[in-house]
Amino acid sequence: MTEPRKLYVRSFGCQMNVYDAQRMTDTLAREGYVETDTAEDADLVILNTCHIREKAAEKVYSELGRLRKSQEEAGRRQMVAVAGCVAQAEGAEILKRARTVDLVVGPQSYHKLPELIAQAEARGSNRRAGIVETEFPVEDKFDFLPPPSRAAIAKRGPTAFVTVQEGCDKFCTFCVVPYTRGAEVSRPVAKILDEVIRLADGGVREVTLIGQNVNGYHGVDAGGRDVGLAELVRRVAQVPGIARVRYTTSHPRDMDDDLIAAHRDLPALMPYLHLPVQSGSNRVLAAMNRRHDRELFFAIVEKVRAARPDIAFSSDFIVGFPGETDEDFADTLDLVEKVGFAGAFSFKYSSRPGTPAASMDGQLPEDVKSARIHALQALLDRQKAAFDAACRGRRFEILLEKPGRFPGQLIGRSPYLQSVVVEAPVEAIGTLALVDVREVSTKSLSGDIVGGEFFADNVGMNRSARQSEKVEA
Ligand code: SAH
Ligand code: SF4
Ligand code: F3S
Fold this sequence. Notes:
Oligomer: single chain
Helix content: 25-40%
Shape: globular
Radius of gyration: 24 Å
Low-confidence stretches: 459-473
Bound molecules: S-adenosyl-L-homocysteine, iron/sulfur cluster, FE3-S4 cluster
Mean pLDDT: 94
CATH class of the largest domain: Alpha Beta
Number of domains: 3
């Protein structure tokens, strides 16, 4: 038998890249590739890249430099592929800048990987003839990407991402996503449900439905009816074995009443909503082409809170957008004060080639951006710390996901995506535990299990065992 070929995939960027990496791995598993944890060890290295900010996009080149060095030191030739959003945005430029690269493949062509790799192999050591595939093909890649094996699902643990929508038609003036991922496409309901059923069969308990503009989801069901995200979430929550559903990332404009009602009606829909707002200034929001103002954002927050009082929000912010004044930035701080976030990501505006904002007047100097991001992050950190601190003494359902740092410990996630450390046996992984939160630190919570799917019987057994001990004594 020939040795299996080894594959190493490194992902940067958003959850969709994590999902795509799994689908590429599943596709190549059928070609005889097995995963390895180190690039040095691999016959094929795939860098799954992100183009969202300049720093993210530049990472691929430092990574390629490292690879070239390690190849030279080991005197070994590896096949190197660049996938993801930098591949889509820069295409053949990558081959010019980094000679180590054999193949550049955009996100809509992952189903073609086996044939592209075969072509690259056929070219052998003629590296000048690297292959570039960045078309948006007419066929739907999802129809050709094979599903994961049961073993692969089990290895990935009890939570999974499922892409339900890809691409974006919103064209915020700062953002590359509409160019790198293309127009919005929603997958049909039946395909998504098949995937979720398969995941649940393999032991998955929590699915996060992902899309660049996930609440813009509009798929068709088997009867040809148009189905929005709310209805999709309801159907996913009915799949036997699925205990929790999340979705990300949403746009405020697409938070319709049906989706808000789903937050009221579906206990499985977790009470933690990531809703990027970007800025608290109406002037800046208009220049960003966000299609919402701060008033709409406040109104949505209020409606969702009325529907699901225990909901918490997280968001994304950009500081230093071209033309942002001190007053505009003060409006952002004011919005944060008024809403109160349990978590957030904030970024300094990064000028991206080809986007309208890149050529706007009023580009701001780095020191202004730095001062603003520090002020914003300090406020957001305080809010997160206050939210976490208020969790002490609460009883949460935790999904136990993986072993902790010390023997006998497991790590799970709260409804609010906080890591929670508990003492429990590995057999309990994949079950829901009821936990009384005792300690809160910056990174995680910890607490005591008081019941749950795995423990109900055991806790009961212990109790009756103790009682019978007493009786015997
Ligand atoms: N589709 C999502 C998120 C897209 S990218 C949405 O609509 O919000 C994730 C985050 O990166 C964005 O929310 C934004 O905060 C940030 N981002 C995008 N482009 C950026 C840029 N040019 N500079 C800085 N941050 C950016
Ligand atoms: Fe980018 Fe705006 Fe689309 Fe989000 S909604 S992906 S920020 S263009
Ligand atoms: Fe980055 Fe592309 Fe995701 S640019 S954030 S990997 S959609």
